[in-house]
Amino acid sequence: MESILCLTLFILCTLCSVINGSHFRGGIISWRPLNNTVTGNTTQILIHQKYFWARNYSSFPNLCTEANVTAQALIPIISYMICLANCSSSNYPSVGLSTIMTSTDCDANPIIQTWTGERYDTLTMPLTTSITIGFNSSSWMIGLYIGSSGIYSIANRLNLALRPDGLINSSPITNTLPVVLYQRNVSVVHVVQMADNDATDYLVCRWSNSASTTNYNRVNECGSICNGLPAFTVLIGFNCTLSFTLPTANVYYACALQIEDYFSSTSTTPMSSVPIQFLFYAFNPSAGACAQRPSIIGARPNRACIGVPYGAQLNETIIAQTYCPSQTIVDFITSSSIGMIHSNISNPSSGIWIMTVTWTPLLSQFGPQSICAGAIDNSSLQSAPWCITYLVGYESPYLIKYSASPVGIISQNQTIFSIQSNFYYCNGKIRVSTI
Ligand SMILES: *[C@@H]1O[C@H](CO)[C@@H](O)[C@H](O)[C@H]1NC(C)=O
Ligand SMILES: *[C@@H]1O[C@H](CO)[C@@H](O)[C@H](O)[C@H]1NC(C)=O
Ligand SMILES: *[C@@H]1O[C@H](CO)[C@@H](O)[C@H](O)[C@H]1NC(C)=O
Ligand SMILES: *[C@@H]1O[C@H](CO)[C@@H](O)[C@H](O)[C@H]1NC(C)=O
Ligand SMILES: *[C@@H]1O[C@H](CO)[C@@H](O)[C@H](O)[C@H]1NC(C)=O
Ligand SMILES: *[C@@H]1O[C@H](CO)[C@@H](O)[C@H](O)[C@H]1NC(C)=O
Ligand SMILES: *[C@@H]1O[C@H](CO)[C@@H](O)[C@H](O)[C@H]1NC(C)=O
Ligand SMILES: *[C@@H]1O[C@H](CO)[C@@H](O)[C@H](O)[C@H]1NC(C)=O
Ligand SMILES: *[C@@H]1O[C@H](CO)[C@@H](O)[C@H](O)[C@H]1NC(C)=O
Ligand SMILES: *[C@@H]1O[C@H](CO)[C@@H](O)[C@H](O)[C@H]1NC(C)=O
Ligand SMILES: *[C@@H]1O[C@H](CO)[C@@H](O)[C@H](O)[C@H]1NC(C)=O
Ligand SMILES: *[C@@H]1O[C@H](CO)[C@@H](O)[C@H](O)[C@H]1NC(C)=O
User: Fold this and answer.
1) Among 310, 315, 354, which is best to mutate for testing ligand 9, by the most ligand atoms less than 8 A from CB?
2) Which of 39, 41, 124, 125 maximizes ligand 2 atoms within 8 Å of its Cβ, making it the mutation to test the pocket?
3) DSSP H helical segments within 62-152, as ranges?
4) Is 154 in the pocket of ligand 6 (CB under 6 A)?
């Protein structure tokens, strides 16, 4: 009896220690109906959680490696994303949805130290649902410019009220690198990617805030890292562009935004609110640094959207170019989807560095799946982030043949178009290329 009690206490304490500690490093929550046509008074909603954790968090049993990503190991953050506001409008489970993620990326670079995972859950919910779901606990990582070791809070509005066009809404989707490196005291323009399955929606991002009685989510949206970037940072909402200068080297700056979709540019209330929280890191370049940062080159343009079938293995070659003889790519930082496996880096010819990502999309991964990558050299110079979206279950030729507008190869400066299949769109700020 006593030993059972001791064991129980031991397990409870282990769980506590897994939840408390400076381990949070950001994330994204989004959702969409499996079918946006109304049938009856409920609908199935696919909810996506993605979180970045401190790889070197003391309560993780071992430092993760790519082997854990290959094995699709579960990240043991034993907690729940719960309903935070207007909960009586829905049947969202009162215990919440688990936050135990499947590993998608593990980055051992001493500056990055991130363990990333994602998770999907499907709930059948009434169309009366108009709730805020989120995950708040302690604590943020240490080493932040603002908010070190504070409470984290990340929240999403899940509103199933019918859109003016009579359909069920899908929230915007986004992705980011967990850590984006910039030189200290250099002015930076950083674009956060945003897209939406509802092709004609007007997307705007804004700062997350703690005004829990007045903001759209009715909760503190960002915990200790509200206003986590330097004062004077400018955010242009309609293209989600940040402009800033990082003042202090060797610290991390937490960024918390909400991406919101409006039915049109004249609508006054958004239909959903997707949080995106991630880090910038400022460094002083070393004496031998190259004047030019690496870049990701290759067949696929940044922000390409590619239709892919189920079950066939894809080999995506990510190629970085360097510009000085002494410039060595030491890391490809990534934010991937479940099942994507990252090769070691090879250097087949001078100035060319390659990582291959292999992935066999599963039936359960129907819809948009994405990967972002950035190459880092041995002076901490990081390439611009490169992100692509796969539309699983649709082959590009099919999309382009039947419903692309405009048809054919989409030029680099084409920003407004939509590709409509039965149900999915690659729209707005994403570009399309054939496979
Ligand atoms: C969505 O549901 C409607 C009505 O039941 C059905 O006609 C349509 O085929 C479904 N669409 C998809 C993509 O399953
Ligand atoms: C949904 O419809 C079913 C059957 O038509 C009914 O029994 C149920 O009470 C309705 N639920 C809600 C939340 O309106
Ligand atoms: C990660 O992989 C290592 C080595 O294979 C293993 O010891 C460890 O338990 C794995 N971690 C998880 C969370 O599965
Ligand atoms: C974990 O790594 C981060 C860098 O990503 C570093 O700032 C922090 O001090 C490390 N923490 C521990 C406990 O080693
Ligand atoms: C709460 O949910 C009800 C039912 O869907 C909705 O009418 C109301 O606008 C919601 N309130 C807030 C503050 O979201
Ligand atoms: C999480 O949010 C809820 C609702 O706003 C609040 O009651 C609770 O205190 C928060 N928890 C933490 C740890 O901040
Ligand atoms: C920051 O950069 C500006 C020019 O861009 C320079 O004048 C200033 O001296 C720099 N400050 C520091 C502390 O390096
Ligand atoms: C975002 O819009 C602003 C204002 O029109 C413009 O100056 C800026 O260049 C745009 N950003 C990007 C990345 O296009
Ligand atoms: C990807 O690579 C694997 C193994 O190298 C190979 O069997 C497969 O045919 C390749 N797939 C494509 C689409 O190139
Ligand atoms: C980067 O690596 C190259 C090759 O190993 C080396 O020559 C160079 O000095 C390194 N640069 C820095 C800044 O460490
Ligand atoms: C990648 O590199 C690590 C360490 O150098 C090595 O242990 C591993 O076998 C390599 N993996 C592959 C697929 O070559
Ligand atoms: C778009 O790019 C093409 C060629 O790349 C150029 O001919 C065209 O003028 C550009 N259009 C606009 C609106 O900039």
Assistant:
1) 315
2) 41
3) 66-70
4) no
Cα separation, 50 vs 208, whole angstroms = 17
Determine how β-strand 304-308 pairs with β-strand 431-432: parallel
List of domains in the chain: 14-284 (no CATH), 288-435 (2.60.40.10)
Task: Identify the DSSP state of 7.
Answer: H
Residue 94's CB is within 10 A of a number of other CB atoms, namely 9
What does the pLDDT profile of the chain (435 residues) look like in tens digits?
A: 444 444 444 444 444 444 568 999 999 999 999 999 999 999 999 999 999 999 999 889 899 999 999 999 999 999 999 999 999 999 999 999 999 999 999 999 999 999 999 999 999 999 999 999 999 999 999 999 999 999 999 999 999 999 999 999 999 999 999 999 999 999 999 999 888 888 788 999 999 999 999 999 999 999 999 999 999 999 999 989 999 999 999 999 999 999 999 999 999 999 999 999 999 999 998 898 999 999 999 767 777 777 788 888 999 999 999 999 999 999 999 999 999 999 999 999 999 999 999 999 998 898 889 999 999 999 999 999 998 888 887 765 334 333 333 333 333 333 334 444 333 345 433 333 332
Residue type, 17: S
The residue whose two tokens read 């611009």 is 384
Calpha distance 218→221 (Å, rounded): 8
Strands (DSSP E) contained in 293-378 are 295-297, 304-308, 314-321, 329-335, 341-342, 346-349, 352-359, 367-377
From the CA of 308, how far away is ligand 9's center (Å)? Answer: 14
Ligand nearest to the CA of 284: 7
Q: 């979206």: which residue's tokens? A: 389
Report yes or no: 328 and 320 within 8 Å, Cβ to Cβ. Answer: no
Q: Which residue puts its alpha carbon closest to atom 7 of ligand 3?
A: 62
Beta bridge partners of 182: 282
> Residue written as tokens 């400076």?
22
Does residue 358's CB lie within 6 angstroms of at least one atom of ligand 5? no
> What tokens appear for 313 in the block?
């293995």
Indicate if ligand 3 lies below 6 Å from the C-beta of 67: yes
End-to-end CA distance of the chain: 62
Q: Residue with structure tokens 């503190």?
A: 220
Cβ of 277 below 6 Å from ligand 5: no
Instruction: Give 149's DSSP letter.
Output: T
Three-point CA angle 181, 183, 187, nearest 5°: 105
